[in-house]
Amino acid sequence: MIEHQNTIVIIPARMASTRLPGKPLADINGSPMIVHVWKRAVEANVGQVLVACAEMEIARAIKAHGGDAIVTEPGLISGSDRV
């Protein structure tokens, strides 16, 4: 049961990382990295978890695992802007 009903966790993600392009979909033990991050946030049980992503392939990965994602404007320059 989620105890903090008014809390939402938003995880920003984009494929165009300058240090590690494609990082959100990097395979870790058979699942994309962003799915691992999403699962840990869900396990924290602090509220709804949403991935705010710049690309559809990230949204599809999250949705394929039962999560919620929203595709944001790709031109946003930071995770804070994406949130």
Structural features, described:
The protein is built from three helices and five strands, in the order βββαβαβα. The protein has about 80 residues and is of the alpha/beta class. It has one domain (about 10-80). The strands form two sheets. A three-stranded parallel β-sheet has the order 1-4-5. Strand 2 and strand 3 (about 30) form a beta hairpin. The longest helix is centred in the middle third of the chain and has 12 residues, at about 35-45.
Order of helices and strands: EEEHEHEH
What's the shape?
Answer: globular
Structural domains: how many: 1
How much helix is in the residues? 25-40%
Q: Helical region count?
A: 3
What is this structure, in a nutshell?
The chain has 83 residues and is α/β, with parallel strands linked by helices.
Give a quick set of tags describing it.
83 residues, alpha/beta, 3-stranded parallel beta sheet, two-stranded antiparallel ribbon, 5 strands, 30% helix, globular
Write the layout of secondary structure elements.
Blueprint: E1 8-13, E2 27-28, E3 31-32, H1 33-44, E4 48-53, H2 56-64, E5 68-71, H3 79-82
Parallel strand pairs: 1-4, 4-5
Antiparallel strand pairs: 2-3
